[in-house]
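Work Package 4 report. The design task specified in the project plan requires that, given a folded chain encoded as structure tokens, an amino acid be chosen for each position. We show below one input record used in the internal validation round.
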């Protein structure tokens, strides 16, 4: 039996489908609290039937019973789906398999957040707060991950370094050292086929070129390479794949370090180039002939210029896409129908994502917000907002918490880390662009020191929307949002805005209405509104929307219990057309009935 899908489905990275399985009636009740497609009864049959298609399973069943059901289905940890067990009281979320590779630990944290449960993580790195080498954001790990991780967990010396000058992952910076012969393992950031010293990834017990015993080695592949491709019209995907593979091999470079494929604009949709990008799982970027012709390259071609309008496609596109300071590490390699060159970025393309986490709990977060937080190297935010997304964080990320009021410090810290090549998220409650961090961060991003830092704003559910949904539909027509905090805005200006909204007969959502020190502003604002609408006007009060202790009340403009309002209350004052319908606030759109 299949029950109705919840509000969303998808694995912890936002792709695939998570399925929830239950057996008992209490388990069914727990499953219905989760936003995943729910199947009740016959867990063994459902697991067998859906194992190869699902990204993960949340099984509301005892761990022992679940182990017996999944054991015959297990194949490879790289491809098996995540399995998380939840007891039928909804108190614990336990990853059973796929902890790192399939994201079961992340899924357990998310499920625990949704249920108010405790995630029970037994993976050693999570338990001890050490970064997992195969989960570092922005890197792909190759080699003897188990041996290197065991050395870190045992507190043994591990050589951690970058072979190309590429920055170390943020989570490894504090561990970085080159301990030479005393090291128990080597972890190297490298886009080459071999680490410095001649050690291939995963080598154990062999000898390097100097005769010394080789170390268990992990190569962390950064996305440092750009492959430039030029092709004839009749080039096939096989031609392009062979040419790219040959160029990477000629440079001793790893295909897993490719960040993008670059070409001339007339070849953007060419099947051969698209196939190469699709195989590598990277985007295609393209440039005009004029832009390419402005790039200095070692081997321009008069023949290419006559045909395309630029002296170089492969080399110029690779260098241009790789950005300032890029190095051409593989000059153009010419085959009958495809030409390839490879450039290395001077540093990572740092960026900042300003993320709105929604008003409270995980149920009101967007998939895009969760994905942005999970993929970040560095997380910056007010300590309360960091706590709000604690279920999304793991030891592979560096977290910087700030006190309330340090908005500019947060913005500058995030931008400085991004300018150094990090992927940073700044977390906010509600929506990042509504009384939150997007505005100050974008202002600071205009400084010359941060030129070139990409800033992305990830929207969230703002408090007014969450409160309105709980109250009914008070924002069904024109409305305004006004903050009553006069810490940064003079009260006279705030009062003028409230007066204007009142005169315009707009529904008004009041943010930051009252604090322990600011006790009179709400009274003044309500008095201004009362000058333009009757005392019976509906008013909604929502405190701690989506959080434990959430409170929802509907009253009138004449009877607002001001003393019960806090900084986490959203006050929605209706317009002249707002009315109560079966106890819910509704502002009609004016449709003909």
């Amino acid at each position: 039996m299949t029950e109705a899908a919840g509000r969303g489905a998808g694995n912890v990275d936002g792709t695939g489908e998570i399925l929830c399985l239950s057996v008992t009636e209490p388990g069914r009740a727990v499953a219905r609290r989760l936003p995943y497609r729910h199947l009740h009864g016959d867990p063994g049959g459902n697991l067998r039937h859906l194992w190869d298609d699902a990204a993960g399973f949340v099984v509301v069943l005892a761990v022992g019973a679940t182990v017996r059901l999944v054991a015959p289905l297990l194949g490879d940890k790289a491809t098996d789906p995540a399995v998380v067990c939840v007891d039928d009281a909804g108190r614990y979320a336990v990853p059973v398999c796929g902890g790192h590779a399939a994201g079961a630990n992340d899924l357990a944290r998310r499920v625990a957040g949704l249920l108010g449960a405790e995630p029970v993580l037994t993976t050693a790195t999570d338990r001890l707060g050490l970064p997992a080498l195969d989960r570092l954001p922005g890197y792909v790990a190759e080699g003897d991950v188990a041996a290197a991780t065991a050395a870190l967990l045992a507190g043994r010396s591990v050589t951690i370094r970058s072979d190309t000058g590429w920055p170390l992952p943020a989570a490894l910076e504090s561990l970085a050292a080159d301990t030479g012969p005393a090291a128990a393992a080597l972890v190297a950031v490298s886009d080459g086929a071999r680490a410095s010293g001649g050690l291939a990834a995963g080598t154990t017990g062999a000898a390097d070129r100097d005769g010394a015993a080789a170390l268990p080695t992990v190569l962390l592949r950064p996305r440092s390479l750009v492959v430039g491709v030029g092709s004839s019209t009749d080039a096939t995907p096989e031609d392009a794949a062979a040419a790219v593979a040959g160029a990477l091999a000629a440079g001793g470079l790893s295909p897993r370090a490719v960040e993008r494929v670059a070409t001339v604009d007339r070849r953007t949709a060419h099947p051969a180039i698209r196939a190469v990008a699709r195989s590598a799982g990277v985007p295609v970027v393209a440039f005009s002939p004029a832009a390419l012709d402005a790039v200095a390259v070692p081997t321009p071609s008069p023949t290419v210029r006559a045909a395309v309008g630029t002296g170089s496609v492969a080399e110029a596109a690779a260098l241009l896409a790789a950005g300032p300071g890029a190095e051409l590490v593989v000059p153009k390699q010419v085959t009958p129908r495809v030409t390839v060159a490879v450039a290395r970025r001077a540093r990572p393309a740092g960026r900042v994502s300003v993320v709105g986490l929604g008003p409270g709990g995980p149920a009101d977060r967007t998939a895009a917000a969760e994905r942005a937080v999970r993929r970040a190297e560095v997380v910056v935010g007010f300590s309360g907002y960091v706590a709000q997304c604690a279920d999304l964080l793991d030891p592979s990320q560096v977290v910087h918490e700030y006190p309330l009021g340090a908005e500019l410090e947060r913005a500058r810290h995030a931008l400085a880390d991004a300018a150094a090549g990090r992927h940073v998220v700044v977390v906010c409650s509600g929506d990042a662009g509504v009384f939150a961090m997007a505005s100050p961060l974008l202002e600071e991003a205009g400084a010359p020191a941060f030129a070139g830092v990409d800033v992305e704003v990830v929207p969230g559910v703002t408090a007014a929307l969450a409160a309105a949904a709980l109250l009914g539909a008070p924002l069904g027509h024109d409305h305004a949002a006004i903050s009553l905090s006069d810490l940064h805005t003079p009260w006279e200006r705030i009062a003028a805005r409230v007066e204007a909204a009142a005169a315009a007969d707009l529904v008004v959502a009041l943010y930051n209405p009252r604090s322990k020190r600011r006790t009179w502003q709400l009274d003044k604002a309500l008095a201004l509104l009362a000058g333009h609408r009757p005392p019976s006007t509906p008013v909604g009060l929502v405190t701690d929307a989506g959080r434990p202790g959430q409170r929802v009340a509907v009253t009138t403009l004449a009877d607002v219990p001001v003393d019960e309002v806090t900084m986490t209350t959203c006050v929605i004052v209706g317009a002249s057309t707002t009315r109560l319908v079966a106890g819910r606030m509704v502002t009609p759109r004016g449709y003909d009935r």
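Confidence is low (pLDDT under 50) at residues 1-12, 195-212. Validation will be extended to a larger panel in the next phase.
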